[in-house]
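Troubleshooting: if your tokenizer reports a length mismatch, compare your output against this known-good record of 166 residues.
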Amino acid sequence: MREIKATELQENPFTLFQQKWALVSAGTKEKCNTMTVSWGGVGVFWNKNVATIYIRPQRYTKEFIDAQETFSISVLPEDYRKALQYCGAHSGRETQDKFEAAGLTKAFDGDTPYVEEAEMVFVCRKLCEGDIDPATFSDGEYDGMFYPEKDYHRYYIAEILKVMVR
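Known-good structure output:
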């Protein structure tokens, strides 16, 4: 992989998460986990290039994101769709190594885990986080539609420290 500036990205930000999906990985070299995300975005916050992700409170990977300063977002080619589906449907609590179980290779940028097979990787440092509050919804329909279990996402806004592409 080669490093590029975030401003050199040619990727459509609307297809990046919603259509391609991605894997968010966090933890340490000793223990880490990954999960599929399909809600998120990239943009500018506090004059920094950022990525925003949304994680439900029961997700195992959230524990790793909360415990570390950094995490990665790995965008995989279409032929890894089954691995993305596996990582979205199975918890790392159920298996010793979710990367291996999904047929993926763990790699590290410093101490931040990412997926070696990715076509693009964002290495991110948390700047700001908070919980989605249903009292702020402009339409009450969203609460029942997206949160029947009342498991409101936590959002993370993170500075993009590095972008790597194939």
